[in-house]
Specification:
Glycosyltransferase, 330 residues, globular
Length: 330
């Protein structure tokens, strides 16, 4: 046993550069698959885009999880340093959010597997959110660390209820309300804090600007979670949706020059899930409040999310084929 432990400790570090935030690619692909499934029901869109994107999402999760497991086994100190980091540590929530979203895709094929995956994600997300909030309140934080990444643990809680209808677990309505309440009400002060930091502190580095779109996620996901939990689109739900559209328009303007000013990095995947979540919210709203403008917005956001996420996927796969993973992860 001692020899085995010594051998493990002497293992050559591998994939120590792999960021936990790469699970954001799983979130984006899964969200886009769900959006196309909604488009299939609303507009009669073909079924194959949702199936293909879902397959890519599952494959991405397995690949990233395997890669990060190798990193954890051979470079445990790098994982611990990443978890302790005041900004990157919050992004561990992307792994749990992936586990919460994938069951929406898995449920039609294996309800048991979907429930197991969702349970792991829900327990992990709730514990992780508690750990992060406790850390924030226990230690003095620096304003410069209040970046959009801090939203991730909150968004993770908001994702807890989304798969419950597909999993046929109506007895968990109380958990849905808990996740909605904690996630949404924590989103407001965090958004205010981060917005204040963006106003009065030095701007984010160009490489970090894709993370700005994370600010959209609590309101886009909040709309979907609220309507899923309450079963209706009332005035509050409409307000969440309208604010999503306004904030998305503002932030898209802020990052419009990103492809010109910055080389591609896997951090660009930060834009994927907010765009997919906005498209999902728009499609849900169009189904609840059908009109020409609501349908036009839903189709426009679905097209935008599809264009951006497929572009990110193609560029990432091209980089992997060329052996650029270390460079893209920088």
């Amino acid at each position: 046993m001692t020899a085995l432990a010594a051998k493990s400790s002497d293992a050559k570090p591998r994939l120590e550069y792999l960021p936990i935030a790469l699970f954001g690619s799983v979130m984006g692909l899964t969200g886009l698959s769900v959006a196309w499934r909604l488009a299939e029901g609303r507009y009669g869109a073909p079924a194959w885009p949702a199936l293909v994107l879902g397959a890519f999402a599952v494959a991405a999760f397995l690949a990233v999880a395997a890669g990060y497991a190798v990193k954890a086994a051979t470079s445990g100190e790098a994982v611990r340093a990443e978890f302790r980091h005041p900004v990157a540590g919050a992004l561990f929530g992307t792994a749990f959010i992936s586990l919460l979203l994938l069951p929406i895709l898995l449920a039609p094929f294996s309800l048991v597997l979907a429930r197991v995956v969702w349970t792991a994600g829900a327990v992990g997300m709730i514990v992780f959110a508690w750990v992060v909030v406790s850390r924030w309140m226990s230690d003095r934080q620096q304003v410069a660390h209040a970046t959009p990444a801090w939203i991730v643990p909150v968004v993770g809680l908001l994702d807890v209820p989304l798969a419950i209808p597909a999993l046929h677990l109506p007895s968990l309505h109380g958990l849905m309300v808990f996740a909605l309440a904690v996630g949404l009400f924590f989103a407001v002060p965090l958004f205010t804090l981060i917005f204040s930091r963006l106003l009065f502190e030095p701007p984010l580095p160009d490489a970090a600007k894709p993370s700005l779109l994370i600010l959209v996620a609590p309101f886009a996901v909040g709309y979907s979670t609220y309507t899923t939990t309450t079963g209706q689109t009332d005035l509050f739900a409409e307000a969440l949706y309208m604010f999503t559209l306004f904030l998305l328009a503002v932030l898209l303007g802020q990052i419009r020059h990103l492809p010109v000013c910055c080389p591609f990095r896997v951090s660009w995947w930060a834009v994927s899930f907010p765009l997919a979540a906005s498209a999902i919210a728009a499609l849900r709203f169009a189904a609840a409040e059908p009109s020409v403008p609501s349908d036009a917005i839903a189709l426009a956001l679905l097209g935008l999310a599809t264009l951006v996420i497929t572009g990110l996927l193609a560029r990432t796969l091209w980089g992997l084929a060329k052996g650029e993973l270390r460079t893209l992860s920088a």
